[in-house]
Each structure stands twice: as structure tokens, then as C-alpha cells.
Amino acid sequence: MSESDPKLRVVDDEAEKADDGVVRLKAAGTSFEQVQRLAPEKVAEAPERLESQPRDLFEGRSQEPGVEAILDKEEVVENVEQPWGMRDGRLAGMPYGWFVLIIVAVIAAGVWAVIQMSKGEAEVAQRLAEVREMKEDDAAEDRTARELVDRIERVVGEYLAADSVEKIVPLIRHPERVKPLIEAEWTVRPKRAMKFARLTTFQPATIPGGEFWIVRAESRDGEPQNLILEQLGDTGVRVDWETHVCHQPMEWGRYIADRPSSSAMDFRVWVTPDSYYSHEFSDAGRWRCYRITTKDSEEHLFGYALADSEVARELEDYLKSVPNGVATIIARLRFPAGSSSPRGVVIEKLVEPRWMYVTDPSKDSP
Questions:
Q1: Lowest pLDDT segment from 53-57, 123-127, 144-148, 156-160
Q2: How far, CA to CA in Å, does 32 sit from each of 6, 36, 91, 178, 270?
Q3: Which of 123, 187, 317, 340 is the one with CA 20 to 30 A from 152?
Q4: What is the per-residue pLDDT across 142-197, written as a single tens digit (0 to 9) for each?
Q5: Per residue, what are the HEC states of 274-301?
Q6: Which ranges does the record mark as transmembrane (predicted)?
Q7: What is the residue extent of each domain of the chain?
Q8: In whole angstroms, how far apart are CA 244 and each of 21, 78, 137, 194?
Q9: Could you tell me which of 236, 242, 210 has the C-alpha nearest to residue 152?
């Protein structure tokens, strides 16, 4: 190795400060190759420490400023009495509008609650008034029903006990028309007075044109009696005498035997469809046939109505609506003059679809 070749030595940065710099080498086989000469580092001078005058009666740190330095600053820090994030007395980032909206919502909710409570109290009061009114109405209806039952029992008792025309006429319907019928009936079959015991049936009758009741009265000395009564106003009750006795303009057996053809008569009968076509009523395309029977008799007639007549249409419609196809009606019957049919009779009119006149036929307009 020649003297000109660079020599290696250990450099201690802390112990020795090289003035001539340092050469950086790179290994190349068995020798070293100079790569870069580094200039010596310049050590930065240590900064000088600020010295402050000692302050009496206060042992603080030398770096802290005095109170007067803080007070002399133009920008004053936030007041310690202010909450964090508050400026000028309001929350940072929270506009006044939200507070107003919340307050209005709370007030509105309170007003709504008060209104609803008032409404609820009014509804409860109204409901209680309705309940009291219903109870009063029910009580009034009960009193009226009891009074009605009492009146009916009294009228039925007097009706069954009546043994003269004068006593029974004030208790019956259509007294002016019916009184002569009672007199004629009692001439043949005098009425027997009965003692009323009690009502076993009491129900309304669905009869248009009035308010009617069906009752079954038991007597102490006879058979039970089925009656139809009409309620007149609040206190009036009348018995339908014609329905009770099934009054006929002529005794049914004698009517069949005599075959009067001078005029038509209104009979209380039962009518059912039949197919007995004979004599002058043998044309089934022209006539409709019905079997006619009545109360307290085994005799029957065959009634005929023209197929295209109003009577036939009314009977067909009525028969469709009644149980077992048996119609209880008041029918106007007439034997044709010179008829050869022994039991054939013409049905001229369906007077009533029951055995009772709803209105007085003597007062009907022609």
C-alpha cells in the first residue's frame, strides 16, 4: 500500500471533531474505492436562554407571562362564566328558530290535549244522558206494556162474561155494523157467559192498517178462546167478534144444499189448489181450481177463477207465501145460474187475505 492510498481510521463524532472531512469508501474486492468525500458537519450553536428579572413574592416559572401581559392583549379569551361553545348567550350552531318551533309544538300539544279532554268529557256526559234517557224510555215502555196487558185482561174478561148485546157491543170492533149480526146469531145460538182465568198467549199480529194483538184466554168453566184485538190509541182495546165466532152470511151446509145464485156472499174459508175440472168448469186451460173448506164443517166446494183474472193471480201469489199452501181468506162466492156442477162455485173476489176486516166494509167508498 502506498502512502498516497487513503488510510482507514475510526471516527468518533462525539470525541473528535474532524476538520478535514470524511471520505466514504466502497468495497471493491480486496481494495476500497473512494465514492464520496463528506464535508465536516457544523455543529449548531446552542440557543441562548431568555433570562427574566426575578419577581418578588412569587416563585413561578421563568417562562410564564405576568397577569398584566394577559390583560394587555387585545383579544380577550372567552369568559369562564360562558358555557363551552356559547357565544353571545346562545348555543353555537343552534338557531333560535328551533327553540321557537319546540316551544310552539309543546304549547300546541298542551292545547290539543286540553281540547281532547274537554271533548271527551262532553262525549261522556252525552253518553250518560243517552243511557239515562234509554233507561227512562225502557221504564216508560214497561209501564205502558203493563197497563196495556191490564186493559186487555179487563176487556177480555168483560167480553167473555157478557150475556147481553148491550154489554158486549162496547167491547167489539165496528159495533154499528156488527150489532145486527150478533142479534141474529144469538137468536139461533145464544151466548154462554164465561169466567176469565188468565192469558196464555199474548203477541202482536202483523196486520197492516192497524195495531192488533192475538191472545189465547183460558176460562174457568169452558174451553180456551182465541181472540184478535185491535188497540185504539193508548187506552182503547176492542175484540173482533166476527173472527172469534167465524161469522158466515149463511150456514155453510145449508149454502151448499140450497145453492143460492141470486147474489154473491162473502165467506170465511180455507183455500188450497186442486185439479177437479168437471161440467162447465172442465176446461183446465181456462179455469184455475181450488178446494174450499171452512170451520166446524166437513163439507167442501170447488172454487173456480178464470186463469187470466186478477183473482187467480192474487190467489196464486198468496198461496206461495203461506205455510203448507193453505190460504185463510174471506172470499166472495157465487153459484152460477143454471150450473150443472153440484159443488162448483165461482170465486169472484179475494176480499181479505185473513178472516178479519181491517177496515169496516160498510164504510168503504164504492
A1: 53-57
A2: 9, 12, 73, 161, 150
A3: 187
A4: 787 788 889 999 999 999 999 999 999 999 999 999 999 999 999 998 989 999 99
A5: CCCCCHHHCCCCCEEEEEEECCCCCCCE
A6: 96-115
A7: 100-130, 155-245, 259-361
A8: 154, 112, 35, 14
A9: 236
